[in-house]
Design a protein that fits this description.
mainly alpha; 3 helices
């Protein structure tokens, strides 16, 4: 996940937020300014 090869599902993101004691939005904020279609699998 860290290098962008795999993308976590929603359940994994929720578990990460709980484990890291942060908001889900903190984990996904990086995608706010990302060209989302460019990172989706073809």
């Amino acid at each position: 996940m860290e290098v962008g090869i795999k993308f976590p599902n929603l359940l994994t993101v929720l578990r990460l937020a709980v484990a890291l004691e942060c908001k889900v939005t903190d984990l996904v904020r990086v995608f706010d300014k990302t060209d989302l279609p460019s990172i989706l699998p073809k």
